[in-house]
Amino acid sequence: MAGIAAPDAVVTDPVDSDEPAPRLTVVGTGYLGATHAICMAVLGFDVLGVDVDPGKIDRLNAGEVPFFEPGLPELLAKALDSGRLRFTTSFDEAAGFGDVHFICVGTPQQSDSGAADLRYVDSAVTELASRLRGRALVVGKSTVPVGTAARLTELVHRLAPAGEEVELAWNPEFLREGYAVDDTLRPDRLVFGVRSPWAENRLRAAFAPVIAQGTPVVVTDLTTAELVKVAANSFLATKISYINAMAEVCEATGGDVTRLAEALAYDDRIGGRFLKPGLGFGGGCLPKDIRAFAHRAEELGVGQAVTFLREVDAINKRRRARTVDLVRELVGGDPNGVRVVALGAAFKPNSDDVRDAPALDVASTLDRLGAHVTVVDPAATANARRSHPELTYATDALTAAAGADVVVLLTEWNEFRHLDPGAMGAVVAHRRIVDGRHALDPAQWRAAGWEYRALGRP
Ligand code: UDX
Question: Quick one: which of 4, 74, 314, 374 could link to 392 by a disulfide (CB 3.0–4.6 Å)?
Answer without folding.
Answer: 374
